[in-house]
């Protein structure tokens, strides 16, 4: 190669490196169908303080990285080459399957598919405890419970997943969760089989989206309503997908959006036509609330139940339209924690909770709020719900909650538990502390008291020595009676002052639901 061409290559290479910076200075922009899916860094203002001068280089580097010339076309070309040229996902959150099917790449979904995670013994104890409490609540309130589990897209279309993702020959968390729910006496509906069967009628999930399409949602809604129809025969089912005309829809999916292709990767899908709903009226949509949205729908169907549906994005715009108008009252809530107080107040007949399979990887979705359940059912709380100045929270499978507030023999004296500042009406009460000694010993162990008005008024107290327990290593209930004067009291708290020397674990504290 001649010297001229060598110099020319060097010049062109240098120009290529400088061109983005020059384009940034001159304000030259070339748009592309690329979506960053985040707010880009803003140009930092001229520094005025020493701290701003120190941080200016890093701030400007962030700005330049987000705005250098031709950035969007270059990013689009890179993602386009990986996806269309090599069949590789440019984003770890998306898995490119066979025939360009896209799957959610979240750890929870991949662990569900590969079956690489299983519940620990501690998880199983806590889940069973929560489910038993929830069933007890449903029986007491005469509210029927139904858990509906929506399988991952990768479960229904496992043959479309890349062969690199192998599956262990162990039980899936979905099947294990279904068994635990069923054993607890709660009705459970695994929608996997009906959706797999529904594939014979056409696609039930979007190719470029993690959600089911209208056909899948209709199949799921019919399965849920069929289960409710066992309790309320007057419920009418929506028509099956086979009786509805197909419609062609052009739409971008959430997984395509995550690839940054904006409007470039749009799926042409065949979905079921619209279902003419029965006559109903919307009371309110998108009620102001902390979490997402709610809806309330009513219909003149007195022989049907009042239903609340707890759901996520699978229910918001796809499932709900097939259920609204087929029960006399439907409240929808984008939330995974059931609002027990509201369900009681609104005289709900059936509470339906939807869970997507990937959620089951995180055990807390089935544990719910055990503290809320215990307090509502038995006026009982885990000791770990209370603040503490000493000790630590430790695991203990002999506990109701599998975790306890604990102080060993080397822990210095101090408040092991205090709070939670309840408001109690006038009456006689008995606070029950469930505790155990960790080791044998002699002498004082703890001082219990019930106080009000932020500790200024002590309603009752007692000192405990090792003689208060029949033996170490066993939880025993120790009761402290007290009275609340006329007019009631605010800020009532249960306190345990640890004396030190003999280890102590506190499992729970129980107050009666009504004055004695």
Per-chain topology:
Elements: H1 3-26, H2 50-67, H3 71-86, E1 94-96, E2 102-104, H4 107-114, H5 121-141, E3 144-150, H6 153-156, H7 173-183, E4 187-190, H8 192-198, H9 214-231, E5 246-251, H10 254-258, E6 267-272, E7 281-285, E8 294-298, E9 306-311, H11 315-323, E10 329-334, H12 340-345, E11 350-356, H13 364-367, H14 370-378, E12 380-382, E13 392-395, E14 403-407, E15 414-417, E16 422-424, E17 427-437, E18 444-452, E19 457-465, E20 476-484, E21 489-498, E22 504-510
Parallel strand pairs: 3-4, 3-11, 9-10, 9-11
Antiparallel strand pairs: 1-2, 5-6, 7-8, 8-10, 12-22, 13-14, 14-22, 15-21, 16-21, 17-20, 17-22, 18-19, 18-21
Helix pairs in contact: 5-14, 9-11
Shape: globular
Integer average pLDDT: 83
Largest sheet: 7 strands, mixed
**Alpha-beta classification:** alpha+beta
CA-based gyration radius: 30 Å
Number of strands: 22
* Fraction of residues in helix: 25-40%
Q: What is the number of helical segments per DSSP (H or I, 4+ residues)?
A: 14
Low-confidence stretches: none
Strand content: 25-35%
Measured between the Cα atoms of the first and last residue, the distance is 100 Å
Q: Largest beta sheet: what is the strand line-up?
A: 4-3-11-9-10-8-7
Describe the structure.
This protein has helices at residues 3-26, 50-67, 71-86, 107-114, 121-141, 153-156, 173-183, 192-198, 214-231, 254-258, 315-323, 340-345, 364-367, 370-378; strands at 94-96, 102-104, 144-150, 187-190, 246-251, 267-272, 281-285, 294-298, 306-311, 329-334, 350-356, 380-382, 392-395, 403-407, 414-417, 422-424, 427-437, 444-452, 457-465, 476-484, 489-498, 504-510. It has 516 residues and is α+β, with helices and mostly antiparallel strands. Helix 5 packs across helix 14 and helix 9 packs across helix 11. The longest helix is centred in the first third of the chain and has 24 residues, at 3-26.
